[in-house]
Amino acid sequence: MDRKLISRRIGSILDDISRLSNALYAMDTTDIQRYPDNYEILSTDAALRAERIACRLRHLIYSSTSIQKGEYLQSASVAQGISITYENGVLEVTLPGLLPKRRQRQSSEFLLDPLYFALEQYAKEQPLPHYRNCVVCFAQVYDQTLPTRRVRDYDNLEEKQLLDLLSTFVMADDTGLLCDAYNTTELGEQDCTKIFVMEKKRFPQWLAERKESLKTISDF
Description:
50% helix, alpha+beta, 5 strands, five-stranded mixed beta sheet
């Protein structure tokens, strides 16, 4: 890539970083108790801007270095804290942060690309399950030290692209005839999203066990 083009792209990213810094400063000086809506707008803007910066840096790496996309994204999945486990017939995927709202599609590439390569790497090291009739549970885990007003409606969350990605690796099809979706809200040590996939016959027992072991919003 031409050095001048690289410099222009870096300069544009630096501008975004400056705007991110301003947004973070505004967050730090906003009274969250008196102006919760303003704080939500500022924090959402900052988070999405940070994700765009990360994606732009990824593309700069791909186009200006010898590092391959797959090689980098495997490292990105580790850095993000993406984890995949399979135990007792249940596939569990943990993602950093909460699912984006449907209108915030800028988050998709930031999250989905590393998840794809994490699943691909997992499949190389050990066999993934393959479900025909299954239930997919999306658990939104909220930091228990923060206000519960942060909890969002399920129908505003972006789940389709995650479901499409998971179906590529572990499902016969994500059609409603074969796949049921279930949503739950939990409290935890930090914000994250957990996705569980299992056969439909396994779901009732799994749900009962999970409700017993975790503290949910309904406790309040």
